[in-house]
């Protein structure tokens, strides 16, 4: 079997689980489509704890995601395929998507870049973040919008980008300066708001 046949076989194996266990479909649709909201809220919570290590973690994760996303788009120029529901018959398609290049999986890149960065920084429940990223990757196959190769490639790109940025970015003065500059203006904003509230109460 060549890579394409393995890719299709693995897709069928995962996607057909939705036909065998339809009661799980709503859960995987939620994970595939809406878990990004939880990630976004978590990023905001980490950032606004005002802990310097948390802010460095979020900054590194964001830089890594930008790098991984760019690499993903470049790789999509050299290799591409449409979504499984467009190319294959009898796909258990659970979400609506327009016909487009599905290689690599943007959702997988997003989740693995952030969640793996959380793990690298050893934040609480870090393994649960990695597990969540794995579930998101599986869910994209389950709902019929990505092949395993789309997901696996997204994982490799994310892990490489997150590890590279984790190794070099925290030690760079530019990343420290970005956080310091933000905190400088944040302090000014909070001070200004405090003074306005005091003046209103006088």
From TrEMBL:
SMART domains: acidPPc (SM00014)
Pfam families the UniProt entry points to: PAP2 (PF01569)
The Phosphatidic acid phosphatase type 2/haloperoxidase domain, residue ranges: 57-166
Source domain of life: Bacteria
UniProt cross-references to InterPro entries, sorted A to Z: PAP2/HPO, PAP2/HPO_sf, UPP_Pase
Chain ranges passing through the membrane: 28-49, 56-82, 102-121, 128-145, 151-169
Alphabetized GO MF terms: undecaprenyl-diphosphatase activity
Annotated GO CC locations: plasma membrane
Keyword annotations of the record: Membrane, Transmembrane, Transmembrane helix
Identification of the protein by name: Undecaprenyl-diphosphatase
Taxonomy of the source species: Bacteria, Bacillati, Bacillota, Bacilli, Bacillales
């Amino acid at each position: 079997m060549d890579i394409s046949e393995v890719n299709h076989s693995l897709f069928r194996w995962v996607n057909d689980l939705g036909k065998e266990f339809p009661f799980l479909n709503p859960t995987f649709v939620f994970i595939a489509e809406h878990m990004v909201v939880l990630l976004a809220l978590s990023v905001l919570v980490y950032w606004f704890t005002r802990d310097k290590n948390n802010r460095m973690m979020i900054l590194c994760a964001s830089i890594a995601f930008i790098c991984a996303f760019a690499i993903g788009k470049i790789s999509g120029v050299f290799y591409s395929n449409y979504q499984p529901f467009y190319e294959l018959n009898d796909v258990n398609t659970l979400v609506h998507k327009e016909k487009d290049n599905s290689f690599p999986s943007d959702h997988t890149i997003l989740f693995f870049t952030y969640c793996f960065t959380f793990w690298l920084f050893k934040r609480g429940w870090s393994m649960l973040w990695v597990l969540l990223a794995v579930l998101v990757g599986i869910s994209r196959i389950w709902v019929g919008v990505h092949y395993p190769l789309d997901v696996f490639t997204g994982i490799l790109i994310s892990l490489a980008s997150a590890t590279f940025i984790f190794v070099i970015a925290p030690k760079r003065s530019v990343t420290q300066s970005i956080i310091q500059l933000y905190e400088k203006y944040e302090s000014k904003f909070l001070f200004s708001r405090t003074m306005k509230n005091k003046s209103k109460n006088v």
